[in-house]
Queue: 3 jobs
Job 1
Amino acid sequence: MGIGTPNGTANRQRRTDELAAVSMTASQLAQAVGRFDGDKAAMVRAAVRTAERAFSELDACDNVIDEASETGRKIADRLAELLAAETAADIPVQLDALEATSARVRDTDATRTLLNHLLGRQEEVAQRPQAVLHLSSADLPGLPSAYTDETGFEDLMAVAARGEELAPRLRDAHAERLDKVADHLVRVVREAAAVGFAERGFAIESVHEARQAYELWLQCLAERRRDLG
């Protein structure tokens, strides 16, 4: 869920124009520098002012990333609390905040790309974080059931008795499944926050995986209620 600002459209247009300028050829750049008419001192002063402005803009982008990282850690902590308390209804609010935090960083993408290109820092910032880990129901511990027991039963009473016998294991299995999904969800958010949501693909995938993990956690919660009441 993105966050709009009154100047958002204008800023995006400005950044688009700036990115287009990156394609300037060496010949075109030489022509532009030539406007100084041989005044090397003026050219150097202009270059210094440009570099200062570029670093200032990068500092502002870095501040956004740092703030997003801190916000992401707080969201992860809050999610851990809500999952432990099984306060399911409050979790989507945190996931929306996570997506908004990621979107704020994405709004700096064009500026960071341009400035890092101009400052020759592309290789320094190009490394992608480790891949986002995914979790599905197939990765969770199985649930014991008298109906799938290898031991044959002659009547329903025997099946019911076996169910009572398996009840402690079933409770433990449900708890383990819920804990595994909750830990995964929180870990995904923490890992995205650790890099400040600065890598676009990794951040988007992380937010998506967090939402998927929440849906899986709800599924596990429903299965436990079905089996244990």
Job 2
Amino acid sequence: MTSSQVPKKQEKKPPEKEHELPPTAWAVLGLLSFPGERTGYELKKWADSSLRFFYWSPAISQIYAELRRLEERGYASSARSGPEEARAKRRYAITAAGRAALAGWARGTAEAGPPVLKHGLLLRVWLGHLAEPERLRAMVEEHLERTRGELAAVREAAEHAGGVPDWTFPTLALRWSERQHLAELELGEALLADLAALAQPAGQPVPGDPPAPGAAAARARQAAGDAPTPG
């Protein structure tokens, strides 16, 4: 047998360490940490009525992928329903090892990291020089209306969770989310006022008047390709 015919020994992928689990895995395990067993679909519903208001709601495919990962680690277990149910369902539960790992992660000393803001509306406003003012104002109005709907959903979720001892801390997170949505409404109204101020003729330079202080330097920086903000 030649060397080329010798079967190669397949290298084993080193197991993930606890701290290497992605945040989505910890979020799914966190959903399982509350009393009861749940299907992947039920976990998705829970994420949509809680996690999405302050973090992110994973897709159903991501939830099932993380459930498989957690089962492989021994952090979760699952069992199919019996013949008493018309449709067989697989229900998941957290294990003792999973609860211990989750508790260690939750009280860990590692920096949680700064909040990540990806504000689609502000990206459009940033490009406002390419849009009509009326359309920009309409987008802000649409955002405010959507935020009011989200605020109502947050309050409904908080009311549903209120008074249940096992949901005390999720209720605190929902209260924070309520305040965040109220702040978002205030910011949106202020943005509308800023856009309205831009439309006022009084804010435009009058032909023949001397340029504002620093205007020549600003035009020179722009012509040189400088960015509008330091960096």
Job 3
Amino acid sequence: MGAMRRTVWGMLAALFVVAATACTVTTEDPGYVPPPPPAPMEQLEKAGLANPQDFSNGEDVLSFITDDRSVACSLTSARGEHLNLPYEMNSFSDTANNRLATVPVAHCQLARYPKPGPDDVVDDCAGTNLGYLGGVALVTPEDARYGECRSGVTRMEATYGPNGKKTGALTQLPVLAEGQNLERNGLRCSAYNGGVACGNVSAGVGFFVSPERYELVAPPAAGAPPPPAEASKSP
């Protein structure tokens, strides 16, 4: 009987050792610093593409909204200043505008947004130099800008801003998941880093917008010296 008890206790001890050694305990490294998010153009170049059919309205326009409902964008077309936006009244299809060249663009609106910097104000608003406001960004194959002349709020601000109504066409837009890309006619948009990046990767032109900040990306000026080479890290 005593030998049997010792055998049972031995088996239990062995099971405890096996169970203990099979467990792994994960502890956080207090010194770990997560890597910074990629630059906008790097994100647009490397992130995976979403299925465009999930974001089409049946026309040649791809529209989406971010998961937090802070930014809504369309990969669409422009004729002069007339944008083909499915959630806003516009004059894109007016016959008077048929003489204007049709250009692919990416356009975003924000519910909350920073002011444009002085160097990024590109319109004198009919000579008044008043009313150039933030909250919108536009990229063409060759240029990117932030802000516009207007007298009121953006459609996103009216829908999802502090006093937004939470109703209307913008509430029906599909969500582009964090980290995904959409592409149309050489332009891409990606939801990432708390905002949206859009641009023409091949030309090095684009923007990043979020409720807290914006960034305009332009290629180096012609004749500008290349950036200095990084020093070798070999011993």
